[in-house]
Each structure stands twice: as structure tokens, then as C-alpha cells.
Amino acid sequence: MSKIEIKKFNLYYADFHALKNININIEEKRITAMIGPSGCGKSTLLRSINRINDTIENVYTSGEINVSGENIYGDEIDVDALRRNVGMVFQRPNPFPISIYENVAFGLKVNRIALNKNIIDETVERSLKAVLLWNDIKDKLRKSALNLTLEQQQRLCIARLIAVAPHVILLDEPCSSLDPVATQKIEELVIQLKDRYTIVVVTHNMQQAARISHNTAFMFLGELIEFDKTEKIFTNPSKRETGDYVSGRFG
Amino acid sequence: MIKLNPKLSQKLSYTILFLATVLAVVPVVVIIFIIIKNGASAITWEFLTSMPKDGMRGGGILPAILGTLSIVTCAIAITLPIGVCAAIYLSEYAKNNLLTRIVKLAIVNLAGVPSVVYGLFGLAIFVMFLKLGVSIIAGALTLSIMELPVIITTSRSALNSVPYSFREASLSLGVSRWQTVRYIVLPNAIPGILTGAILSISRISGETATILFTAAAFSVPHLPHSVLDQVMTLPYHLYIISTQIPNMPENVIFGTALVLLLMVLTMSFVAIVTRIYFRKRRKW
Ligand SMILES: Nc1ncnc2c1ncn2[C@@H]1O[C@H](COP(=O)(O)OP(=O)(O)O)[C@@H](O)[C@H]1O
Ligand SMILES: [Mg+2]
């Protein structure tokens, strides 16, 4: 079943045509990877799925993106509610400069999802356990999140999302500032999370896409060149550009 | 062209830079030294807490101290909230179109308008047109308009220094734009905003020209009891006793200057401590 349907989607930064007629169906509770050379529009497409691109001036779109059957570019959409459903993890870990606990509790408190202290405590614990961070930090919940390692910070950012119970998690090159060991651990985490969340991950690391995803989209110069099962993309792609890219002949 | 050897030119430039620094520091030190040397003897408890006597040649300067404090307090209470709100609007909400750019440019330039011009404006609008008379409130309103551009500018740079990634992180949790400003941006900008505010306070404490038109009196025989009162103020009082009153004891003049100086320096010092304190705590 597809959780996200992108139909004839175009996006312009002022007069620069960054996404050209994109059509993809993203499966529920699966990991979908987006690969392609730098500047091809992967982040732009990802950022369109929770409308975080709205914060940039002079962005124009056409076409539809349906999340759970609802067009998120429709007139009646509540953008804040959309973003609660479709959370995002960024390239550089960006915890708030407050305590670990407050980072995870932030969305709950501000969105008034939970106001009761016990429920918040429970949710914080559950979210930190889900990202396998709980055992390392349960004694320093009140310490600043900025003291954590980058890998821990990235886990924390995922926990912070999980706390507000999204359906979809978008990850934009979540490992690009991490070392190989930390990268592997985050990959393992992402694989674990797929049972409960629909995950879309942008990566410039093809091995990563091959290791963790079910489906892979290959983008080039703002166009979606090919979208298929990951195995097929990496072993027997239909398009020549895809083959060239995954075999490392360009990009 | 004469080619100096590198060692020598290094030494020469070092010396020139050092001398320039000395030139900048020496006058300040000398001024402070002279004021302390000539004024310290006047500073007594009585000087700080009593009314002037003998045609201002004796007694204390309490009304001037209170006058300055009340004008400055009112002014900052008016200008800070308005300035911060305007800064939030400009930094977080306003679209970057021609109108916004003109407004921003105007604000930067308003900060450079001479204070005497604001004084005349205050006289025309607050004292005469709104019939507030020469009073604390007229002076405070004038000063708050004068400081508004400065507060807006420092607050905007404080807001802009909060990393964009914090805003994105908050928005992507489904937190609304206003709540993001309220709970993420503003708390992280407070140190910068406060520092700017305190420096503004110390700047307007010494302001004379605007106050002259809108709030200050030559002499008021009682302490201020309402915002509609005229008041004595330290800078204006200093001007009067040093130019208008014959046979003024020198130590009273310097003592008054010292009190004003201490007020302003204390404020700057508080600003510096605030900044250091908050800087130590944040780590991005
Ligand atoms: N805010 C922006 N304003 C204008 N152009 C942008 C902006 N963000 C990205 N672009 C352009 O859009 C294209 C796609 O960018 P991006 O989605 O970041 O690529 P990727 O993530 O695949 O590296 C690039 O050519 C980039 O220069
Ligand atoms: Mg990118």
C-alpha cells in the first residue's frame, strides 16, 4: 500500500526548475532511498513531503503530494499537523541547546500532546529506548544535549521525532557527518524502525541505499530517472543513466 | 620604493598599531582619573540622598538621580517590548520584499539621526501636541523613540544569530511558527537582546539634548511624584552647575559627573557580565 503518492510534482526556486514532473508511490512501513548526484534535487523532494520548504521564499510548486490519501498541497491542509505526521531528520544533528530530556519532551509539551508529567516521562523513556540511547544516557537526562557525541545527537533527534508519533520519517543524509562505525549503527536503527514507520532516506552513499532500502529512486538534474526495487536498481536497472551512476561511472 | 627588511617592517607596523591603541585608551583613562581625583571628595551619603541647597552649591543631587532613573526606566519599559516585537516581525515573519528592505534601511538610518532632532520632535509631538507638557513621560517617550532603532537592530542581530537549523528542527516536529519563535528562537536570543537593552540604558542615561526639550527642569524643589512632573536630570544638572552658577565648588561638579559616570559604567559592566554569562552556557 502506498503511504505517499507524488503526482506530477514540480518545484521552482524562483525561476529555477528544481523538480521536474516527479511521480513516485512510496510504500507504507518500508524504507525508500533516494540517490543521485549532489544537486539533483533529493533534499528538495524530501523537504517537499513535509512542506518544510515553505520556509524558503519564492518557492513555487505544482502537482500533488498525497500523504495517507490527502493532498498536502491542498487548500485545507493544516501544515503543523502535517509536520507532526511527517517528521524530518537533518544532515547535521541539530538538538536544541537544552537538556536531553527537554529535547525529547519539547514536541509533546509545545504541541500539548501530553501534559501529565508521568506520561511525558514515559514517552521520553520509550522514545529514547526506541533509538537505543536509553541505557547510555538514562543517568544524564538533565545534561545538555550538546555534550553528546554526534551519533548520539542524531539518535536523539530521531527520538525527539518519535516522541510526537509521526507516521513518516524523512531522513536527509542522516549519516553524512558521522564516522563509519556510527553510520552502521544508525543504519541498524533505521532498519529497526521500518516496522513502525514509513521511512524515506536521502543518501549520497550508494552502499547505504543498497544495504537498508526496499525501494530506490534515482534522480538526476531534477528528474526522477528510475524508481524500482532496490535490488533491481543496483543489479539490473532499466535506464542507462542509472546503471552508469550505480556503477560509479559518474556522480 | 624603499624596501624595508621584513623584520623591521614587522616591528614598525607593530609599533604603529600599538600606539593607535594607546591613543584610544589614554584619553578615557585620563578623563576617568581626573573626574575621580576631583570629584571623589564630594561623594558622601548626604550628597547622594539629599536635596540641593544654597542655590545648588551645597546639599545633594538626589532629585537629579531620581529624575534620570525614572526617565530611563520608563523609556526602556516602553521601547524594549515594542522594539523586540518589531524585530521578531522583521526577522521571522516579514517577506523579503522591497517594502521590508526600505523599512530595514530606514531603521538603520534612524539610529544615526542626531538626538537633538529627536528632542525637537518630542517637543512638538509629546510636549505640545499631546499636551503632556515638559514631563517624565514626554522625555521617556522621546527617548524610547530615539532608542527604538537601536533596540530593533540589536534584537534582530540576536534573533538572526540563532541557528536556522533550530527553527527547522522545531517546525519539523509540527510546532507552529509562532511557538517556534516563542520557545526556541526567543530564549536563545535573550542574551543578545538583553545586552543591547542594557547598552541602550547606559546610552540614554547620559542623554542631554532630548531631555532638555522634553523633560528637564533647571530646578525642581521636590522629588518627582508622577510621570507628568518635570524633573531634574544628572546630565542637564551637570550642564547647569558647570556653566550657569557662579562660584560653584569644583568638587561638586566633578562629583556629579562621577555619579553619572558610575551609573553608566555600572550598566555597561552589567551588560558585559550578562554577555559572558550567557556565552559560557551556550555552545553552538
Ligand atoms: N533555497 C534554495 N534556493 C535556490 N536554489 C536552491 C535552494 N536549495 C537548493 N537549490 C538548488 O536546487 C537544486 C537541488 O538542490 P538539493 O535538493 O539540495 O540537491 P541534493 O539534495 O540532491 O544535493 C540545486 O541545484 C540547488 O542549487
Ligand atoms: Mg541534499
3D structure, described in words:
The complex is a heterodimer of chains A (251) and B (284). With 251 residues, chain A is of the alpha/beta class. Chain A is built from 10 helices and 10 strands. Chain A has one domain: P-loop containing nucleotide triphosphate hydrolases (Rossmann fold), CATH 3.40.50. Chain A is 37% helix and 27% strand. Chain A has a 6-stranded mixed beta sheet with strand order 6-7-8-3-9-10, sandwiched between helices. A 4-stranded antiparallel beta sheet of chain A has the order 2-1-4-5, with helices on one face. The model of chain A has no long low-confidence stretch (mean pLDDT 93). Chain B is globular, with a radius of gyration of 23 Å. Chain B is 74% helix and 1% strand. Chain B has a two-stranded antiparallel ribbon. Chain B has 11 helices and 2 strands, in the order H-H-E-E-H-H-H-H-H-H-H-H-H. In chain B, helix 1 (6-39) crosses helix 11 (250-281), helix 3 (62-93) runs parallel beside helix 6 and helix 10 (234-243) packs antiparallel against helix 11 (250-281). At the A-B interface, helix 2, helix 3 and helix 6 of A face helix 7 and helix 8 of B. The complex binds adenosine-5'-diphosphate and magnesium ion (MG). The site of adenosine-5'-diphosphate has 12 residues of chain A, from strand 2 and helix 1.
